Amino acid sequence: MTARPTPPASLTTIGGHAFRRDFVAGAMAGCVMRVALFPVDTLKTNMQRSGTGAGSTLRRLLSEPSSTAALYRGLAPALLEIGVNRGALMGISTAVKGRLPDRIPEAARDAAAGCAAGVVKTTALHPLDTLTCRGQVGRAQWDLLWPRPRPEKLYRGFGPAIVRSSGGMAIWLTARNGLTRSAPESLSRTPWQRDWLVGMTATAATDVCTFPLDTLKKNLQADGGRVVVLAQR
After folding, report:
1. How does DSSP classify residue 128?
2. How far is CA 134 from CA 41, 104, 130, 154, 207, in A?
3. Closest listed residue to residue 153, CA positions, set 221, 64, 70, 84
4. Which of 10, 55, 133, 229 would be a feasible disulfide site paired with 221, CB 3.0-4.6 Å?
5. Longest CA pairwise span in the chain (Å)
6. Helix %, strand %, coil % of the chain (to 5)
7. pLDDT tens string 119-139
8. CA separation (Å) from 49 to 16, 54, 156, 196?
9. Which residues contact 109 (CB under 8 A, 6 or more apart)?
10. What is the pTM of this model?
């Protein structure tokens, strides 16, 4: 039996060039996206928590003494979280996929790599996501860290978060890589346009599948409570 060639070290070692490149690129893109779209995310978070429509929620946010501050509350932990989040998604998934045998179908390797990256980054970054959510809805943030960290509150909503993240990242990476591989030749000549369309489509598909879990997570992060009670509201 012919031995399978060993993949390049850059794809099999977590310290390889591919990991570093993908981590930095993912982190930078994530931070730029987060700053540009943070007001939209703040609006969404407040709608998820209050159950009100977009118009009334936006009017309430804009009626605050500083509407800009209201729309950008929680940005600092969000930038730290999204930078590591996207970097980990791209870097860890690259490393994990490179270690999986070639006999496993490509889509299955994408799903496994995305799932692993989702578990790792959510476990590490959930406290920052909780601080972001509480800032967006006007709840106290830093009392969860000072004078002593309060992990029981920082990890509220972790159950739905880990399911959403691992499943969502598996969906996203599988969809994104599958669409990239099957993109028409005309789009291959303009990689930025192909990547934009592919990323947008993969993200939309992921959000449709995981949005209820995101709503449940944010309500738990903002106000506490029990999963069963919130799910029945």
Report:
1. H
2. 13, 42, 6, 10, 21
3. 221
4. 133
5. 73
6. 80, 0, 20
7. 999 999 999 999 999 999 999
8. 42, 12, 15, 30
9. 97, 100
10. 0.82
Q: Can you tell me the distance from the alpha carbon of 165 to that of 203, in angstroms, rounded to the nearest whole number?
A: 12
Residue with tokens 């970054």: 125
Run of H or E including 98 = helix 75-99
CB 214 within 8 A of CB 48: yes
Amino acid making up residue 178 = G
Q: pLDDT tens digit string along 134-159?
A: 999 999 888 999 999 999 999 999 99
Pair 31, 83: CB distance under 8 Å? yes
Q: Which token pair is 196?
A: 């934009």
Written as six digits, the tokens of 150 are 């309060």
Q: Are 72 and 42 in contact (CB under 8 A)?
A: yes
Q: Supply the DSSP string of 38-64, one letter for each residue.
A: HHHHHHHHHHHHH---HHHHHHHHHTS
User: Which amino acid is present at 80?
Assistant: L
Please give the Cα distance from 55 to 231 (Å, whole number): 25
